Amino acid sequence: MSQNVLADAQFTVASVLRPFEGFEARYQGHSIFTPIVFPGTLDDDAGKPGFSPYLLKGLPVPMGAKMALWFPAVVGAAEGIPIFDYKYVLIWRLRNVGDFQRRRLPYHLSKEAVGAPDSYLAPSSPDRFVLPAATETVVYQQPEPALSVPPTPGIITQPGASQGNLRTETIDVPSDTAEVLVTAGLPLLPPNAAPNFANAFPLPPTAPPPPNGFNPLGAFQQGIIDPAVSNLAPYSLFRPYYTVAKGDELMIACYRNNSLAAAPGSDKWDFASYDAQFSNLYGTNAFPTPPQTSHKPFPDLGIYVFAGSNPS
Known about the structure:
The two termini are 24 Å apart. This protein has helices at residues 23-27, 97-103, 177-183, 276-282; strands spanning 10-11, 15-17, 36-38, 59-60, 66-72, 86-93, 133-135, 137-141, 164-168, 171-173, 238-244, 249-256, 303-309. By secondary structure, it is mainly beta. Strands 3, 4, 6, 7, 10 and 12 form a six-stranded antiparallel sheet that branches. Strands 1, 2, 5, 11 and 13 form a five-stranded antiparallel sheet that branches. Strands 8-9 form a two-stranded antiparallel ribbon.
């Protein structure tokens, strides 16, 4: 007798993807079209025979598994400062059986075959194993095709083939203050449940006082942003995204949308001004004002990546 079995959801613990330590000094002044890659470090085999010395490291993932990614919204420190959206591109890569034999990496290429050489480095080590990479894509289905010629009596005429345009998908994470405040305000707490904040945090300085005095408000999260740096620190600032693993490894490239194209220097990574909160979130707040507000990197803060399955 057959029985319906409902599979439990099973996901890995979070892998935390961050840029490499000190990325701010490396990227400062470079074009915002030069992506900051998570993790952006070198592959463990980079420079060995068959591997480029420039090969980037990827996060091993089980191909075909459901992937849950939590992207943090990079929010401004206060009202009235420029806010940018950061966009992320998922990059998948295949590994081969040799990678599995050496490092027990997941793989879906059955041979460790040599592909196109790297002639720039010849004759020292020109051969390169085939390790293809692909970007996350979305299909845009085009209108239904019509008959290409007027129908002829007695002849069956078929329309052309349907067409879907396969485009790279960028995942834009809005960071505007209005979206956070509209979608998730902060709740009042029961009387005497928590101490009052001396500076009326988290109300912005321009807001009128509440009708019954400065009451503490509940926080949805903690440990992500210092409340002294941003009054949005207690809000739910992560944006979950689901997809399916399309390779054996995952890398994430990040760019900044330039909504102030006319502003001088806004087309460059600038962690002292435009990208200060990006540095504060993913790095050290490298160029802060005042200087004492810089901090060590927080290794458990970044893009959270989960792999697994569920019944849906």
